[in-house]
Amino acid sequence: MSLTKSELVEIFRKLVLIREFDLLAIELRKAKRIYGAVHPYVGEEAVAVGVCAALRPTDRITSTHRGHGHCIAKGADINRMMAELFGRVDGYCKGKGGSMHIADFAIGMLGANGIVAGGMPIACGAALAAQLEDAGKVTACFFGDGATGEGEFHETLNIASLWKLPLLFVCENNRYGAGNAVESVRAQADITLHAPAYGMPGIAVDGNDVLAVRDTAAEAAERARRGDGPTLIHCKTFRSLFHAMRDVPPPETRPDDLLAAWRGRDRDPITRLEDHLIGGGTVTTAELQQIRDAVKRDLDAAVAFAEASPYPDPNDLLVDMFAE
Amino acid sequence: MREITFAQALEEALIEEMERDERVITLATTRAPGLENKFGDKRVRFTPISEAAFTGIGLGAAGSGFRPVVHWGMVTFSFVAMDQIVNQASKIRYMFGGQADFPVTYRCTTGGGMQVAAQHSQSPYSMFMHLAGLKIILPSTPADAKGLLKSSIRDNNPVVFFECSRLASTTGPVPDGEHVVPIGVADVKRAGRDVTVVGLAYYVREALAVADTLAAEGISLEVVDPRTLVPMDADAIRASVRKTGRLVVVDEAPATCSAASEIVALVTEDAQTFRALRAPVQRVCAAPVPVPFSPPLEQAALPDRVRITTAIRRVLA
Ligand SMILES: Cc1ncc(C[n+]2csc(CCOP(=O)(O)OP(=O)(O)O)c2C)c(N)n1
Ligand SMILES: [Mg+2]
Q1: Does ipTM exceed 0.90?
Q2: Which of A20, A242, A294, B164 is the most exposed place for a label (fewest CB within 10 A)?
Q3: Cβ contacts (< 8 Å) between A125 and chain B: which residues?
Q4: Percentage of chain A surpassing pLDDT 70?
Q5: What topology does CATH give the domain B3-173?
């Protein structure tokens, strides 16, 4: 499917923004300027950006513990994301959520989730709402390969297919769940095979090729909007960095040859798109550099915004517990 | 006033709320042909036996503009959906900074005394009370059941609505037409002078029966029904205890970390009420065992009128 130059440039910008946001989050965490855990999405950016490029603003998503990329891809404000990481009152959750609980219901981002597979039933609920509203909205449900071990994964695939819910099940198979390789925890390594078992199409896609992900998601979204039900999109990708850090990044435990195989301009989702766009004459190196510079400026501004925001007032501890 | 059963009262509430607001939908593992005929199978969803999935589906649909009423069947079956209840529903509003409302009602039957043994005779409401973020309802009469279910469906928060199994076929007066009972307001089911008996669900009835018996001896019981466990109407309970100076709490859950314990704490930590107490408080609860099957054993495990009466005599001694 052919995209306009401005669409392609926006896809590139979002890939870079996610990359730089998470690299910055790591540095901020090491410097103890932000709190909690950081789960970097570095290397997997093409999944969120590709899928969200196929969605409309009114479509919804659910996310995971590794959720910064999903937020940015869906159009979240990085100032408010950063303020949340800093635990400040102008954060998306007024400092009550932190990295693993960022949500922006106004843009259809129904929440990161600290529980593996925990967002999957919620995504089905959003898709049921969309089906009842009958306004052609879809929901994209992001989850890791680790989630396939959970009952919620199997329950939701079955129900969504049974009810033909307008849903995209987006599996981010980065080959590991924390320190454990997929083959070490799954009897059947191929996640795509769950799709036929639950009566839905399953499509494996190169998760580091943002345009391939986008095309696959667009087709699945179209199918969902037609009322033909969910699709399992199995995105094969790789986590470039560690699973999670608190005070310091943990040591690498994955084999060298695997790490080497995923390194290189032709594997990295950003350089890959960059080479494609420049090679095809769509953009110039200078234009892409301008985008990178703008992203850096935006992130500097986000940190400034976050640091200028006050901490929440302890007197507001009980605010937001119950709706009126 | 007309008399209907507890179960009929709940059915009426649901139908009226579905008529009132087309965003009310239901999810349950058993078919409801009456409801399906009336409202269609889009709004009346018959689900696979996938409690984790449909508990979260209710939550997600609530966050997307609907008012789902999710029926777990027995509270027993909610335990396979604990992630969605504990990690998601109870926390979702606060942890996201109050940016959305989640008007979902989780219905379930509860309680023992039905000879269906350990797994199907549970009263775990205090487990849910403990999770800040859920409203917890436990009515004892058909009228309260109807009025509180209507309020729960209209409430903009996740509500867990417990329906005591032993009350399902009991009857009572229920007003015609719109009848709504506010969440968080206790009800004095019988006014009295000597002892406050706080009963829950089935044990409100049992306390009333004991009150009738003891009235013949000139002992006057005040029977208070909290009706809502979160938020708990501490003021009403304390006011009663300040009047009588004596408190017995009766419930069929085991006493450890129970609703009964919470009620006792709310009463005793209030200085004025504490000073009004004229005797140590008593809890009449289930024995700390899984509810056994054989009738004599089950009866021994659960509170009964004899044990309630004994506790009352103890606080009067
Ligand atoms: C139910 C549950 N169990 C365990 C954890 C701890 N945990 C957090 S992330 C993670 C690994 C998840 O792997 P995967 O789903 O593949 O996602 P990835 O981290 O690779 O993106 C685990 C085990 C959790 N958050 N939730
Ligand atoms: Mg993984």
Answers
A1: yes
A2: A294
A3: 56-64, 68
A4: 100
A5: Rossmann fold (3.40.50)
